[in-house]
Write a structure and sequence with these properties.
218 residues, 3-stranded mixed beta sheet, 8 helices, 7 strands
Length: 218
């Protein structure tokens, strides 16, 4: 319990920081420092769709997570997860290593169970959508002037990009990376004469972390 308390106090408290546990793992009997596990998880994220949740995903390259499996109880691991630890474990010794929960260090204790900040796939999805919109606007920067015609063209470019993100990956288990959107405002900036500003509200897919079934016996 003391170790868990100390570890829980040492996270980054940021949705852009992932604290990986355990601090050591093994491959064919060879000890590997935890940063190898962190690097493997970074590779797993980089090779996945930006909005694909990684909870319960298999992590290859390791075969022994004894620290997660036998050192701490399930309750203690829950406490680590509540503090924002991204835990890799196994069900049994020699079993398949997997991600217990894809968490950022802005964990449940900090945000009151709001997955918008604690789920890693939400952050990576928002970043991906952001980069996509930035690329859509690149052809206009430095080549067009600020005027109503340019505002209309940029509005069309945003609609095309957002519509594409609503259909992309729709046939995968993760589904589309965007469920809906609304361009709340777009026009000339009130502060900068050489800038157009737009505000867009997006409806994001959230990871499925549970299901409730009610059985009714008539």
């Amino acid at each position: 319990d003391e170790q868990v308390t100390a570890l829980a106090a040492a996270t980054g408290n940021s949705r852009r920081v992932n604290a990986v546990f355990p601090y050591t793992a093994k491959t064919a009997g060879v000890d590997k420092n935890g940063y190898f596990v962190a690097a493997a998880l970074a590779g797993l994220r980089a090779g996945s769709l930006p909005h694909a949740p990684l909870t319960n995903a298999e992590l290859v390259g390791f075969d022994d997570f004894t620290v997660s499996l036998v050192t701490f109880t399930p309750t203690q691991l829950n406490n680590l997860a509540s503090a924002g630890y991204w835990i890799v474990t196994q069900d049994v010794a020699g079993g398949v290593p997997y991600v217990r929960h894809q968490l950022t260090t802005l964990g449940y204790d900090d945000v009151g169970n709001d997955p918008k900040f604690s789920e890693d796939s939400i952050t990576t999805n928002v970043d991906s959508i952001s980069y996509g919109l930035q690329r859509a606007l690149e052809p206009f920067i430095g080549r067009y002037n600020v005027n109503p015609a340019t505002v209309a063209l940029i509005n069309d470019a945003l609609v095309r990009q957002l519509s594409f993100q609503m259909s992309e990956s729709s046939n995968t288990p993760a589904g589309p990376q965007l469920l809906g959107y609304e361009i709340k405002s777009i026009g000339k900036s009130t502060l900068f004469k050489d800038r157009i500003e737009a505000t867009v509200t997006v409806d994001l897919p959230y990871p499925l972390n549970g299901a409730t079934i009610t059985l009714v016996v008539p």
